[in-house]
Amino acid sequence: MKKILLSFVFCFLATFAFASNSVEKPLLQTKISQIQGVDNQNSSLFQSEKNIENLERQTIVFILSCGIVGTISWDDTQINPTPAQLVWLVLALDDIFCG
Amino acid sequence: MKHFIFILNTLFVYFYSFSQTTKFDYKISYNYRFQEDKKDTNSRRTEETLLFVGKEISYFVSAKKLAIDTILQKETNFISAMGRVNSLPKPKVNFEVVKNRDSKNSYFELVGLSLYKVSSQEIIDWKFEEGTKQIGKYTCKKARTTFAGRNYTAWYSEEIPLSEGPYKFRGLPGLILEMYDDRQEHYFSLLSLEKKTYFLDLTHKQDQIVELKNMQELEQVRANRLENLKSAGFDIKLDPQKEKELKEKMRKKQNHIEML
């Protein structure tokens, strides 16, 4: 009975690990390409999500108004910036690069 | 009884929300033209700045920055905040000045993730000169001063009895309508004047303030902004060539009002 239970847990974990690698990675790429597509018509764009490599790490993918792509990531167990701080950070980068 | 508690609660919320705001009686709008790179006249930019004048304090801020701050005070989600901000024009002037009636100034500037505050007490020594100039419907008189490494000419009107002006400037017997330094790298000119009551919430500035002793310390912070972000735990990834260009651009954009 214990063996069956252990096998079940192992299968569950393996499926979960496979899913997080195979589903989230293309999803991230898709989001970036979507942003790039929109960026041609609009100005700066952004995306915020949990990084796929480390779930503790928060990442913002940004595209500045002049088309430069970059990322800002941080460990949100260590620092916890407010939305306002992050907005001003992206605006500051936009100003320095594209201003 | 329930109705009474509800009314009491509503009144409390109403008065509490007003107690967070500061009342201003005038809004003066200036066009601010500034040259970011001292060596390049093509680096001149313009932005609308606002001076709010109240009984106790005056508040000088970029109109675009104020619009964004107003949105960010209410937003709690980054994506939604960025979405709303993205549709607005981006500010180039990211400093604010709060002036108390006792000649104390508080200068605020956003660098990286922190809001830096430099407190100072400045009494501007004006020299009155001959000459008048008509600005709109107001007759203006001339005064000159030296402030933080630059010589300035100010045109003020005694027809507007406000001893105020843009940035940290004040102390003349009338409102400053136009002001510029000798090289015209920082140029303020009046756009409009409104006598109307405004309530502004300035309390958000108490959130993440880093107090500095003087503008020289702020200059250090400005010069090391990328390094400061990295040491705070942020990892900014950009194309290496772009990062090099960024540092070069940052080095050039150092022609601030106060020369240090």
How is this structure best described in words?
The complex is a heterodimer of chains A (99) and B (260). With 99 residues, chain A is an alpha+beta fold. Chain A has one domain (2-98). Chain A is 54% helix and 20% strand. Chain A contains three helices and three strands, in the order H-H-E-E-E-H. In chain A, strands 1-2-3 form a three-stranded antiparallel β-sheet, with helices on one face. Chain A is elongated and about 65 Å long. Chain A starts with a helix and ends with a helix. The relative contact order of chain A is 0.11. Chain B is α+β, with helices and mostly antiparallel strands and 260 residues long. Chain B has a domain at 22-123 and 183-252. Chain B has six helices and 13 strands. A twelve-stranded mixed β-sheet of chain B has the order 7-8-9-10-11-1-2-3-4-5-6-12. In chain B, a hairpin with a 3-residue loop joins strand 4 (95-100) and strand 5. The longest helix of chain B has 18 residues, at 2-19. The chains are: A alpha+beta (99), B alpha+beta (260). Chains A and B meet through strand 1, strand 3 and helix 3 of A and helix 2, helix 3, strand 13 and helix 6 of B. Strand 3 of chain A pairs antiparallel with strand 13 of chain B.
